Amino acid sequence: MSVSKQQQVTALIMATLGFAVNFWAWSLISPLGPVFVGEGLAEDSSLMVAIPVLVGSLGRILAGAYTDRFGGRRMMTLISLLTVIPVLFIGLIGQYQLWTLLLGGLFLGFGGTSFAIGVPYVNSWFPKEQRGSAIGVYGVGMGGTAIAAFTTVPLYNIDHRLPFLLVAGVLVVYAIAAWFLMKDSPNWSPSKRSLGAQLSDTSKILLTWQACYLYALSFGGYVAFSVYLPTILHQAYGLETADASLRTAGFVIAAVVMRPVGGILADRIGAIRTLVIAYSLVIICALTLAFDPHLMPLGTVAFIAMSIGLGLGSGATFALIAQVSDPSKVGSITGFVGAAGGLGGFVPPLLLGVLWKSFQNYSLGILLLAVFTLIALLITLWIGAGQRRAKAASLPVHS
């Protein structure tokens, strides 16, 4: 069934806003990590920033599957309202003791599941040849982490409750708007399969696991740096907390801007070529940073260029899924892949925290990033070779 351009634009805008607002909430603890450490709540910020990432990641498996069943309008509204609860809990009660902060962070993970809702929702509104670009634009919503990086510490310095009260209010306003303005595409039909069968079928698709690794590397790398880079800049380079948060926002913005570019490039030159470019750039930058260069200018250039590569890779991965997957399974595949991306962001902060305690240096962790990115590059080339073989096999044989 045909849909109008206005309907497509409205759907894309509302989904992107929902993604951004929920990611803003999801990222509230990260900029305050060094502050909480300075106040004596913990010796290291890695666990407090990693817990929301873990829960938000695993929750995407269910969020994606339920979106296939109930639609993006209901799910985005529900998740936005649920995320209000931990935001208010942390702001009013939880931020003053470590165990309550960790408890609040556990449920703050609701916000991180929003990503797996928007991808199948946007996908259902656009034809196959436009899905890479549309999903890439939707990915701009991860800029909610940039909003958190820019605003949380300044607002916290005015009043410790202020950033949390502001985000809670924005979430409520968005949830009301989503309920009235979002519509499920006429081309979408709810999945009738049981949740168990749905997830079982998805787990048997090879692309699911290939894309899981690719996204764990690209988006996971982005998440890891967006939540832990303030700590790296503070500990390794001696920057003040506010300065480190602002520089991290620059890293985040670069990735956010390049994510839609990754989707657009995937539509034009192919997802495989775009991923090869992205991962090659990340490898070069990681090898540079592993040698611990001065922050200005080489270190800064390497961090920003790495962010560009991670953003391109994030956009191109979901363009690949949108281009080659059965539309009725995009939500479930998105859930698995989105979970992998978040888990890719959960482990590095913990590892980097251990490395800093052991060696007072992050070089080994950055070097491991280069190694894992090389593996992602090889998987990308493997997928590309498989596509070429499948295309050749489908061509008619002329005698």
Can you give me a brief rundown of this structure?
The protein is mostly helical.
Which descriptors apply to this entry?
single chain, 399 residues, mainly alpha, globular
What this model shows, in words?
The protein is mostly helical. The chain has helices at residues 5-26, 29-38, 46-70, 72-92, 98-108, 114-125, 131-138, 144-158, 162-181, 195-203, 206-237, 241-269, 271-290, 295-324, 330-359, 363-394. It starts with a helix and ends in a 5-residue tail after the last helix.
Instruction: Note poorly predicted spans.
Output: none
Biggest sheet record = none
What's the number of helices? Answer: 16
Please provide the ordered H/E string of secondary-structure elements: HHHHHHHHHHHHHHHH
Mean pLDDT: 87
Rg (C-alpha, Å): 20 Å
**Proportion in helices:** over 70%
Q: How many DSSP E strands?
A: 0
Percent range for β-strand residues: under 5%
Name the structural class: mainly alpha
Note the gap between the termini: 40 Å
Q: Give the overall shape, derived from the CA principal axes.
A: globular
Write the layout of secondary structure elements.
Elements: H1 5-26, H2 29-38, H3 46-70, H4 72-92, H5 98-108, H6 114-125, H7 131-138, H8 144-158, H9 162-181, H10 195-203, H11 206-237, H12 241-269, H13 271-290, H14 295-324, H15 330-359, H16 363-394
